[in-house]
Amino acid sequence: MEKIVDIIESIAHEKGLEPDKVKAALKTAFIQTAKRVISDKFDYEVDLNEETRIASIFQIITVVADDDEKLEGELAEAFISLTEAKELDEDVEVEDQLQYEHKLEDYGRTAAQQLFREIEFHIQRLVEDELYDKFKGKVGTIISGRVTRVDAQQSTFVELDEIRAVLPMKSRIKGEIFKPGEILKAVVRRVTVDKQEGMIIELSRTSPKFLEELLRLEVPEINDEVVIVEHSARIPGERAKIALYSTHPKVDPVGATVGVKGVRINAVSEELNGENIDCVEYTNVPELFISRAMSPAIISSVVITETPEGADKKATVILPADQKSKAIGRSGINIRLASMLTGYSIELEEQEGAVTSESGEIEEEKEGIDSLEALFK
Predict the structure, then answer these.
(1) Same domain, 167 and 110
(2) Pair 319, 246 in one domain
(3) What is the rounded CA–CA span in Å between residue 292 and residue 190?
(4) pLDDT of residue 375
């Protein structure tokens, strides 16, 4: 097969593939063609000569003793007796391998058509493998693409350079509507391969990871890892909480993330269809972390409940009666997010003798903050 090296270079350049991988794929295509056209009972090797730019295919023949039973078996053609082998090469020994060259051109048009199909198949597999590796490495990161269509199940299909991805309805923020031609941002949720449909890239706009990656794009301190997003929790389209800490003593993690007059956090909120985002400073002291996560409610104290290893962690939050509605939030959203953020199942307990007047509320709130913060300083 002449000029095959030129074909390798051409395919590699056109498909953006590594020449060595294309070379390996073509060798496999030659071997599979030989097995189909010549015989699948033999082993073959392919030689790609860089100087002549010609491909040669060889059948492997093993040298065996003159009385070896393999010379009489079904695979007799795959073996040669030591006596016959020495007529070809005096230095040959038992278990050595000789090569017998086959020319696919001698097998007519059938061989040429089979080789073409094999090359096409293996190059396509190579392209798919490269795409799979590329997008597998992008799981958890944001991509942008153009919407091509929305099907009857409200799944949104997005064109990403060489391939198409899908944003299922369940991974779309409530109230969002996308039309063909729009540019859509989403996080790559997972990449799978289906025997019938091929590679499937599933996107998400409801994952907490999408919120974290949007913050990384909008907040330089997070991108530079001066501010770290430790945890995040979302009820998509409604509200989210993020726990942050700073690796630099002079950088306020919450202030840096919110930005001047809220410009940074508002930009992220706008991308999330108006989702409210609460920023909480993270601490490894669970009582203090839970109290911060319950914001905007003012907490008097937090009691961690001892639980068996492996069981759900529990905490009791003690607070004034007039703070209970804030702690729960509309439809229970605040306490749910606080629980998701901290990893604790949270129960509320009203503080005895809580003052409910406006002036008393202020004193109670201030006292609660000061006492809890001072406890863990």
Answers:
(1) no
(2) no
(3) 33
(4) 45
